[in-house]
Amino acid sequence: MDARLKLLAEKLGVSVYFSDAGVSQKNYEVDEKTVRFFCAELGYLARNAQEVESSLKAVENKSWKTPFENMIVMRQDKPEIVFSLPATYEPKDLSVELYAKGCKEPLSYAFFCTPTTEEKIIGSKVFRRWQFVWQDELPWGYYDFILHAGKEVFRTILACVPSRCYTTDEVENGRLWGFNLQLYSLKSCRNWGVGDLTDLKNFAHLCARVGADVIGLNPLNPLFHDFPENASPYNSVSRMFLNPIYLDVEKVPTFSFDILPDLKAQIADAQKGEYINYTKVYQLKMKVLHQIFEANKFDETYQRAFQKFMEEEGWHLEIFATYQALYSKECTCVWGGCAAWPKELQNPASLAVEKFRKDNAHEILFFKFLQFETSRQFQEVFDVVKHLGLKIGLYRDLPVGVCKDSAEFWCDKGAFMPHAGAGAPPDAFFPNGQKWCLGAFHPFALKQRAYEPFLKVLRANMRCAGALRIDHVMGLMRLFMIPDREKDGTYIAYAFDDMLGLVALESHLNKTLIVGESIGNVPEGFMDHLQMSRIYSISVLWSERWQNGSGLFKMPCDYCENAFVSVGTHDMPPLKMWWFGYDIELRHRLKMINDSERVGAYKLREADRQKLLDALDYNRVWPEDKPRKGNYLYGEGFPEGLEEAVHRLIAASCAKVALIQPEDVFQVSKQQNVPGTDCDVYPNWRLRLPIDLENFLSSEAFMRNVNAMKRERGR
After folding, report:
1. From CA 231, how far away is CA 276, in angstroms rounded?
2. Count of other CB atoms within 10 angstroms of residue 42
3. How does DSSP assign 164-228, residue by residue?
4. Distance from first CA to last CA of the chain, Å, rounded?
5. How would you label 591-625 residue by residue, b for 16+ Cβ within 10 Å and e otherwise?
6. Which of 281, 225, 403, 247 is nearest to 686 (CA)?
């Protein structure tokens, strides 16, 4: 690859080399075509040597010609910023105004501003770097920063950020535990076929009763209204709002079973089966909710609250509801999603969209009503959790990207990489890599927009959350991006210090702990940054092993202290499935591995089972009334008490928080999600738990695992 192209790629943050995180780590040299593609995707043409030189010049000059970016992220413990101005200016020519965001009175702080020796000639002008340093401590927060340079005025937003994210003494000094819950999978005698917000409220009461302090949730963002079977919670149509499938329709004011004939029979039918029928459940809920909405018998208090909600959510709600109504209309006659809509509908600010909004105001209002009612019920859950005194409470999940056929993408294409999607190179868990095809933020557009697209999503998912899991947290530093029409990609860098700082600031403003999902290809030194920023890492039993995840299982004292630990995740086989190797057989059936790889995987699993037994023996975590009785070869069945022993092992770790997955407790032998497959190949995101929520406390398996966790956690 040409040296100048490599230099341009380096300056733009496009990796020309990378390593995967497979068991036998491989190094890759990125194809030149891919590098040129991403340079162009970032706004700098690189098709030939002339374009490369022109782009290099533009990149090198950009930071000199403009004094400030649209937002400056400054650490509170390092109160200085650097900017550039023409060298003709002297210190006496400069003055500064500083306003707390939203305030009209200027703040008074002592500072000094001095020129540096760094200069650059661009055309006929000489530019010089300046350093601005506060002498007083500036409280963290957002500020309007105005620089007067002679007759010129330059403005920017200053974000003064804490060095570490928010936490509490109860988390730092305690040994908390709780559950990782896929809300949709909850069965109950009363829900309509999908776990709902009343189930979540009841689960919170259960947690308080048994001493659990955290409820981890799957992403709760809305999916496709017209295609309910597109069920992946990580492929939402907006990370700003909530999925109305989680509504408890019976708790919506004016609901009556008389709304539809045979409603109770339809509910019973929707509850049937091992797997969720999303179409049946969602369409039934929407049918009833439409009837309630059309009847419009809400009292004045409810109507006022609805109006207030619409005013507070403003343009974001308006555009999302418009997208949903428009999508419902266009999907009946246009195939290919919003990208295939007529040109006049591609721009949400167009006259055609405005006309649609006026002509379809009632239907748009229905989608706003869905969001209001879902938000209202979710707030009720949050209030109950606070009243019950759960020390962390709801632990929400923010997906790394968004569906490219989403409202987010439609209304703000400029904030995203237009012709590429996020994915991952091979790692120990997914040896073929992953192509998620998710829309990911454009790193330069984020800076230009003062990080507003990122911040609004972050804030929306911190609502009603004691903790927030940032999916694939490495995306704050870099994301593996793959061109839409290709299979190979590379890493694109983000302004890591800025992103970390803003996450820390928002965590304090919203009093939300931050947890980073860091399973996969983790850059060297990245975990140190998380620890220094007090972003709790995610730890799973299957990766807590020596020799790059293939050796002996680690001892509890070897786990990371600042972590949330569990046995696995929704993307991994539950304990019983792992023990018998059903996941290996599944991958073979799905043609993800061949015959010889299958044989090798079984041999490796047999060795891994023995390593797990050895770890459980050494740490003496087997239940006293169910000691280990043998080596449990494949014909000897599932070891009695294994799930208790495993939960005691992770509970005994020094991790701040330990989490139980109900799938492990109830010995589920099927995987919730197989990455890289669609629902026509495997029923992802559909598996119901085998036991009703009302029966959890009377379940011996549930209580034994709860007591195993409490025994080691001392709670």
Report:
1. 10
2. 21
3. S----HHHHHS-EEEEEE-GGG-B-SSSSSS--HHHHHHHHHHHHHHT--EEEE-------SS-T
4. 59
5. ebbeeeebeebeeebeebbeebbebbeebebbbee
6. 281
CA nearest to 222, candidates 243, 250, 204, 239:
243
Burial letters for 533-552: b for 16+ Cβ neighbours within 10 Å, e otherwise? bbbbbbbbbbbbbeeeeeee
Contact criterion met (CB below 8 Å) for 685 and 202: no
pTM: 0.96
Block residue for tokens 């630990």: 565
Label the pairing between strands 94-100 and 141-149: antiparallel
Which residue(s) pair with 394 in the sheet? Answer: 215
How far, in Å, CA of 6 to CA of 12, rounded? 10
Quote the pLDDT of residue 715.
Answer: 64
Q: How many beta carbons lie within 10 A of that of residue 441, not counting itself? A: 26
SS3 category, 121: strand
Instruction: Give just the sign of the alpha carbon dihedral 670, 676, 682, 687.
Output: positive
Cα separation, 307 vs 317, whole angstroms: 12
546-588 residue pLDDT tens = 987 889 999 999 999 999 999 999 999 999 999 999 999 999 9
pLDDT(431) > 70: no
How far apart CA 224 and CA 238 sit, in angstroms, is 10
